[in-house]
Amino acid sequence: MDPQSRTGSRPHKNKPADTKVSQLDRQSVLDGRVQALARARDGANANVLSDEDLLASRRQMIPDNGLDQDLWIFGYGSLVWNPMIEFDRRLQGRAHGWHRRFCLRTHIGRGSPEQPGLVLGLDRGGSVNGLLFRIPADQTRHECDLLWRREMLNNSYRPVWISVQTPEGAKKALSFAIRRDGPAYVPPMQLEEASRIIAVASGFIGPCSDYLFETHRALAEWGIADPQMARLVELVRAAQKHS
Fold first, then answer.
1. Is-catalytic flag, 151?
2. Residues 21 and 34 sit within 8 Å (Cβ to Cβ)
3. CA–CA separation, 166 and 142 (whole Å)
4. pLDDT digits (tens, 9 = 90+) for 130-182
5. CA–CA dist 102, 5 (Å, integer)
6. Are the CB atoms for 154 and 147 separated by under 8 Å?
7. Strand, helix or coil at 120?
8. pLDDT one-digit tens code per residue, 6-45
9. CA neighbours closer than 13 Å in the CB half-sphere of residue 42
10. pTM: predicted TM-score of the whole model, two decimal places
11. Element (H, E) at 32
12. Domains of the chain: residue spans and CATH
């Protein structure tokens, strides 16, 4: 069992934005700092979803009165090392028909308009190992509101129900897949090209390379091999060494 502490926070409107956040955590998401920083970065061109849009999207998947059963969340990237949500169980699992890839261009949290970064998305095809987090039934609505404010910030992902194979059998889980029709979607590219982007990009959450390194480290700690990510780590470290 892996209990996580609850902050008891709720979103607050009109909170002044700092120029950065020290880390992406429950408080900075719930109090609106991350949302405000994203809006400030893009100004009139901001594509950040409003609270009303986020709520409407969440309601399409999770009703306001929550679920009558526990909810499994499938994490394949930063959720593995920074889940942020409250959960009472954690399992390894494999989802078929999907793979993780650095396919989302970001110029906010891990990049800038001048030097956009790349972060992971769940894309169609193949299979992917990750972690399942179980949210107790009576907490699903609140924890999903947090997830939506984190994952659906600029509408680059779409929430999906997927089947994940685990040692306990198949689990129906909620995850967030890349929107291939979105402006931030990046078609497949060579690892060398991706490494050059990741090595130099940085945003108000921190360097894009830290996102890569932390994800690789966390997957390795769980015994989850990702050869392409391991190679990308090598390329990024080499690029930074010679920069």
1. yes
2. yes
3. 26
4. 999 999 999 999 999 999 999 999 899 999 999 999 999 999 999 999 999 99
5. 30
6. no
7. strand
8. 333 333 333 333 445 556 889 889 888 888 888 887 665 6
9. 19
10. 0.88
11. none
12. 26-241 (3.10.490.10)
Give me 115's structure tokens.
Answer: 């030097």
- What per-residue confidence (pLDDT) applies to 3? 30
Classify the phi-psi angles of 2: left when phi > 0, otherwise alpha if psi is within -120 to 50, otherwise beta: beta
Task: Number of helices (H) and strands (E) in the chain: give both, helices first.
Answer: 8, 5
The total of other beta-carbon atoms located within 10 Å of residue 62's CB is: 21
At 28, list the tokens. Answer: 């900075």
DSSP 8-state code for residue 160: E
Structure tokens given for 188: 């497949």
Out of 52, 86, 143, 151, the active site residue is: 151
Q: Can you give the length of the chain in residues?
A: 243
Percent of the chain clearing pLDDT 90 (strictly above): 76
DSSP 8-class letter at 43: G
72 three-class SS: strand
Question: CA 196 to CA 97: how far, in whole Å?
Answer: 28
How far apart, in whole angstroms, are the C-alpha atoms of residue 187 and residue 123? 10
Pairing, β 89-106 against β 71-75 = unpaired
